[in-house]
Task: inverse folding
């Protein structure tokens, strides 16, 4: 049963929410929402997508999609390996006081938008898949590092204590007692990250970091809606496949 | 009592049995994939061994801060300085071009910290306040509309509420398909279709939030205690009444928590949607980037980082109090 | 052989776990430490291999002070002290053999151990240790496929594989049923007899303490309140140690 204070608080929050919503809705330029204009326009575009479906583009499309997936694979591979030491450095049961610093660093890397990271790497190694791979890699290290550190912090500390009592050194303790416990979780997180990166790889191409993103933007700008349509279908198809496969693998791991 | 020494030692499991083969095949597959992918893409990771790559990236990052680049030389070390402080330096008193040559001869790249640049960057915040607010508005409206649409659909996507298997599976499949589209791709297509500005952004965020929320909410609904539902059904309540009195009270706190999380994700996403013309501070960022106004870009990035960090913090605190 | 001199342990939160403990343990003794939870039994035996660092006092083992040993000497010392735990503390996903081989980690170089290159002698020792506790048939099974009693046996084998001079057991039978508990205690006693390994066991079952111990040490609130041969101990003694009447759950029961 809610106390009257709680009820009062709830009404306060509701009023606040209503004010914010009003501010948000009214501030957006509603002249853009001219339904009588935009809906038929959208309808026309859907029509074009269906009728001018650019199946001729398929061979090039497949090549670009493969490139996109390869980017995601390499980026995830890179990150899943490099994130391991970061995960350990951010886990309280491994490095006590330093863990706070490690966590902060990881969250800094995570918050940096991938796109901008991609732009920086493009400046460094030039446009193309390499920039995208490193952008995804670095961003994923931030994400995976956090997940890894949480996995490490949640392990059973008993086996490690037992190995310490036999005279094993720190590295041996980690290798024999910690790693066997966390490895399946690490792999599961890496696969999950791969699912997300395969989407990110499609996006990074928009700024020139390789993959299907660039052809997509060109198609939108022409506009060649038939091509946009087939690219979208391809993305949906491939990402769905990856999701299904990765989900199956992850279930087998845990 | 412990058994005497076992005459028959257990047979050591063969390499295949102990799962060694599976792991080995897995590793080989991974290695092959790595080799195939990198050769196909024509990647030279060795590019990272060269200092020039790092210097180029550092150059961009530095110029996003309050620094003036005096001279940029190939294969040179980065050096910092103060304006006109080094009167002894070889470049003092020279014209710009000679200055550059003098610096490069020394094998250095020079940047100067300028406090007036810093002031400029901070005051730029005022200039981008409009687009920033637009970003927030987009996120809020998108999350709200998405939630509105999500509520009825999540009821359809919950196994324990939908009697028809066909409906359940159809909804599930459509939902999964929507979630495979990256939000930026959606925004790009919509902005091409609906024109530049906040509208495509809001629509993209609505769809994105909708799909995410339905997934989270339907899983929540599927996990509720069936007891109250059965009780409702038993006393003759119709489907709608069952939902209102049996489901809603149980999932309300979780729904609010999920919605807060979705709002956080939306704010993060809306900052970059502008890259493809879907409104908000991303468009300003793109414009500044194209005009190579890197200090402005730096300001905007700092603002975005701050916004996301604050959003994440607030979201975590609110969710803690809800659950 | 093992001497506690004025060992005191105060934890950071203020708890005084051990207060000025003085003990001399002789080689080959089978000592059982009894006391209520929180009496300091766990803390006491963990001082022996310095899993707990005493706040003050010294612990002399074979002429060296454990409390002041450096990293390297400490690890060397720990290889001589085998320990088994209430929760067995095996690496669940690893095989039994690998768990037992972990007893040799202190003697094997880091890189070699990580690559699994244990010497043939080590592997042989591990197998023989498993034989001694009567669980050879499970050598290649995954540790989590074993029952509680079997897992405890494996952990004893791991300790044996160290070829220790001292064996510590922290409530080794608290998670096991009565027949299995007695089985494990019998193994510990047999190993103590056969190898002459000084054994320190924490128990809160007083009937088991009487049955298996050579010497009983009673602890209460961080202090040693009783120290004498097992055959001189009566129910009265335990009541004094515990500071209350004996209850049914202080007894294990169920001798096989």
Result:
């Amino acid at each position: 049963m809610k106390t009257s204070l709680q009820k009062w608080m709830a009404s306060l929050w509701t009023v606040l929410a209503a004010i914010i919503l009003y501010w948000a809705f009214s501030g957006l330029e509603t002249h853009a929402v001219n339904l009588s204009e935009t809906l038929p326009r959208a309808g026309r575009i859907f029509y074009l997508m269906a009728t001018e479906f650019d199946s001729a583009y398929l061979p090039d499309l497949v090549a670009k999609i493969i490139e996109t997936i390869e980017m995601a694979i390499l980026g995830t591979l890179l990150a899943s390996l490099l994130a391991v030491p970061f995960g350990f450095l951010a886990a309280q049961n491994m490095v006590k006081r330093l863990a706070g610093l490690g966590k902060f660093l990881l969250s800094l890397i995570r918050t940096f938008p991938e796109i901008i990271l991609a732009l920086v790497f493009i400046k460094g190694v030039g446009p193309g898949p390499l920039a995208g791979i490193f952008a995804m890699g670095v961003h994923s290290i931030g994400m995976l590092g956090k997940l890894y550190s949480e996995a490490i912090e949640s392990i059973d500390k008993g086996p490690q204590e037992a190995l310490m009592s036999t005279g094993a050194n720190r590295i041996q303790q980690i290798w024999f007692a910690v790693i066997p416990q966390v490895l399946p979780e690490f792999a599961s997180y890496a696969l999950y990250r791969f699912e997300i990166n395969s989407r990110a790889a499609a996006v990074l191409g928009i700024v020139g970091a390789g993959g299907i993103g660039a052809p997509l933007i060109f198609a939108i700008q022409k506009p060649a809606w038939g091509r946009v349509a087939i690219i979208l279908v391809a993305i949906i198809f491939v990402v769905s496949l990856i999701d299904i496969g990765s989900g199956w693998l992850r279930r087998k791991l845990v | 009592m412990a058994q005497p020494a076992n005459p028959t030692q257990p047979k050591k499991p063969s390499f295949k049995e102990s799962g060694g083969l599976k792991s080995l095949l897995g590793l080989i597959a991974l290695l092959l994939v790595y080799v195939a992918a990198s050769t196909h893409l024509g990647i030279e990771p060795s590019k990272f061994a060269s200092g020039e790559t790092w210097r180029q990236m550092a150059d961009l990052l530095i110029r996003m801060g309050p620094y003036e680049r005096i001279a940029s030389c190939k294969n040179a070390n980065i050096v910092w300085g103060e304006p006109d402080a080094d009167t002894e330096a070889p470049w003092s008193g020279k014209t710009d071009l000679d200055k550059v040559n003098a610096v490069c001869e020394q094998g250095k790249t020079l940047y100067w910290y300028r406090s007036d640049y810093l002031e400029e960057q901070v005051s730029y915040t005022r200039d981008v306040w409009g687009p920033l607010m637009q970003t927030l508005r987009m996120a809020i409206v998108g999350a709200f509309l998405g939630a509105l649409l999500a509520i009825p659909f999540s009821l359809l996507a919950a196994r324990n509420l939908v009697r028809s298997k066909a409906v359940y599976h159809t909804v599930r499949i459509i939902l999964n398909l929507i979630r495979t589209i990256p939000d930026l791709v959606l925004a790009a297509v919509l902005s091409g279709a609906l024109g530049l500005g906040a509208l495509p952004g809001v629509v993209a965020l609505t769809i994105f939030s909708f799909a995410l929320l339905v997934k989270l909410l339907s899983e929540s609904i599927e996990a509720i205690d069936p007891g109250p539902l059965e009780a409702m059904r038993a006393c003759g309540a119709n489907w709608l009444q069952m939902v209102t009195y049996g489901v809603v009270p149980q999932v309300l706190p979780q729904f609010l928590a999920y919605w807060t999380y979705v709002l956080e994700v939306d704010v993060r996403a809306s900052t970059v949607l502008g890259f493809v013309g879907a409104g908000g501070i991303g468009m300003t960022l793109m414009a500044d980037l194209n005009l190579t106004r890197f200090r402005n870009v730096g300001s905007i990035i700092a603002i975005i980082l701050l916004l996301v960090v604050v959003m994440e913090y607030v979201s975590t605190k609110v969710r803690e109090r809800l659950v | 052989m093992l001497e506690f001199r004025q060992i005191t342990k105060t934890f950071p939160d203020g708890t005084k776990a051990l207060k000025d403990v003085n003990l001399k343990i002789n080689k080959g003794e089978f000592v059982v430490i009894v006391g209520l939870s929180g009496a300091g039994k766990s803390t006491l035996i963990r001082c022996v291999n310095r899993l707990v660092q005493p706040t003050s006092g010294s612990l002399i083992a074979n002429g060296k002070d454990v409390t002041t040993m450096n990293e390297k000497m400490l690890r060397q010392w720990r290889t001589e002290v085998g320990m088994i735990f209430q929760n067995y503390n095996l690496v669940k996903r690893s095989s039994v053999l690998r768990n037992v081989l972990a007893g040799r980690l202190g003697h094997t170089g880091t890189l070699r151990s990580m690559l699994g290159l244990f010497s043939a002698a080590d592997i042989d020792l591990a197998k023989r240790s498993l034989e001694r506790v009567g669980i050879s048939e499970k050598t290649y099974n995954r540790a989590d496929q074993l029952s509680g009693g079997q897992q405890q046996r494996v952990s004893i084998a791991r300790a044996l594989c160290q070829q220790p001079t001292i064996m510590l057991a922290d409530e080794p039978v608290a998670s096991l049923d009565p027949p299995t508990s007695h089985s494990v205690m019998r193994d510990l006693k047999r190993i103590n007899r056969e190898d002459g390994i000084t054994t320190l066991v924490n128990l809160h079952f007083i009937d088991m303490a009487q049955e298996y111990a050579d010497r009983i040490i009673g602890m209460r609130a961080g202090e040693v309140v009783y120290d004498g041969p097992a055959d001189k101990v009566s129910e009265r003694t335990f009541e004094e140690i515990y500071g209350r009447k004996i209850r049914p759950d202080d007894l294990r029961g169920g001798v096989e």
Summary: The mean pLDDT of chain B is 80. Chain B is about 70% helix and 5% strand. The first helix of chain B runs from residue 20 to 41.
